[in-house]
TrEMBL record:
Highest taxon of the lineage: Bacteria
Annotated Mce/MlaD domain residues: 37-112
Protein name listed in UniProt: ABC-type transport system involved in resistance to organic solvents, periplasmic component
Species of the source: Owenweeksia hongkongensis (strain DSM 17368 / CIP 108786 / JCM 12287 / NRRL B-23963 / UST20020801)
Transmembrane segments: 7-27
Keyword Transmembrane: yes
Presence of keyword Transmembrane helix: yes
Keywords: Membrane, Transmembrane, Transmembrane helix
Length: 340
């Protein structure tokens, strides 16, 4: 069978078109003959991510970006189609993060595996994230430093303005006077410190003795710690006992007693009753004293002149008042001698 020229030309054209399509897809990072799993991720911005960019897992390429298009819901979010050519199972809660791969800002998608027991199937949507680029990270770190530098320049500007104010003659004179005053103050301070140093040197022995005495005191306290504990325990018991005393009832009773005593003293002072008459009437006191003396004489008379009151045979001689007193003194002296 003879093959015509037209058939040969058509066959060559078809093969050429297939090769062209395969080559174009290969250049885009897509292999027509590879098995692939299609996943999706939604971003609010893609930071320059374009089709054919690599999809990395732990730094290893497992696929490429197929296409990028706006979400059909009109929100302005972007849908990225991920062609996964690896047979590695990806958990459903994995995160597809856009990141920079070099200093020039080339983008790729880095997969961070989740811990879900379920694996993503073709057509599932992964969680998305956008990592800061190197430039953005540097800007983030430098921004606080930049703010501090700006504040520093502002402070320096203020200081320079104040220094400019010191450049006039009046300010210079005042500034020099201030420096001289400071110099004198430091001189006096140095002299004071020298005097203090000499005082400490002179009193060094006294200070040593003082610290030695303090050491002895602390040693004695430590040696008598048991006795001190007993004293504090007794004080504690005393405080407990005092806390149980009914001070209120005691003071109320004492107050009542003082009121009664005050009332009695008031009556005595005002002349009411026998006690008041005894205290306030001198004549009554003198009468009582005279009656007491007469009673003493009567008792002595009964003692030494009993026959006047009891009639007995052969009684003793009678004594008058003066003799009675003398005889009583003699008898008192004899009693004292017997006691000795």
């Amino acid at each position: 069978m003879k093959i015509s020229r037209e058939f040969k030309v058509g066959l060559v054209s078809i093969i050429a078109m297939v090769l062209l399509y395969w080559g174009f897809s290969f250049l885009k990072g897509q292999d027509v003959f590879e098995n692939k799993k299609v996943l999706y991720a939604v971003y609010d911005r893609v930071e320059g991510l374009t089709p054919a960019k690599a999809i990395l897992l732990n730094g290893y390429k497992i696929g490429t970006v197929d296409k990028v298009y706006f979400h059909p819901d009109g929100s302005g979010n972007l849908v990225v189609v991920l062609n996964i050519t690896s047979d590695f199972d990806i958990p459903k809660n994995s995160v597809a993060a856009i990141q920079s791969t070099d200093l020039l800002g080339d983008k790729a998608i880095n997969l961070t595996l989740g811990k879900s027991p379920e694996f993503a199937q073709s057509g599932d949507t992964l969680k998305s994230n956008i990592e800061l680029s190197l430039t953005e990270e540097v800007n983030k770190q430098v921004a606080p430093l930049k703010n501090k530098v700006e504040k520093l320049f502002g402070s320096m500007d203020t200081v320079l303005f104040l220094l400019t104010g010191f450049l006039d003659d009046d300010s210079k004179d005042g500034f020099e006077a201030t420096l001289k005053s400071l110099r004198r103050s430091f001189t006096h301070l140095e002299s004071t410190m020298s005097s203090l140093d000499r005082t400490v040197t002179t009193s060094q022995n006294d200070l040593v003795g003082t610290f030695a005495n303090l050491n002895k005191i602390t040693t004695n306290l430590e040696e008598n710690s048991e006795e001190l504990s007993g004293i504090f325990s007794n004080l504690n018991s005393l405080s407990d006992s005092l806390s149980k005393v009914r001070f209120k009832e005691t003071f109320e009773s004492l107050n009542k007693t003082l009121l009664v005593a005050e009332s009695v003293l008031s009556k005595i002072d005002s002349g009411d009753g026998s006690m008041a008459l005894l205290v306030n009437d001198p004549e009554l006191y003198n009468n009582l004293e005279s009656a007491s003396e007469q009673l003493d004489l009567l008792l002595l008379d009964i003692k030494y002149n009993p026959k006047r009151y009891i009639k007995l045979f052969g009684g003793r001689k009678d004594y008058d008042e003066e003799e009675l007193l003398k005889q009583e003194k003699k008898d008192a002296a004899k009693r004292e001698e017997l006691k000795d």
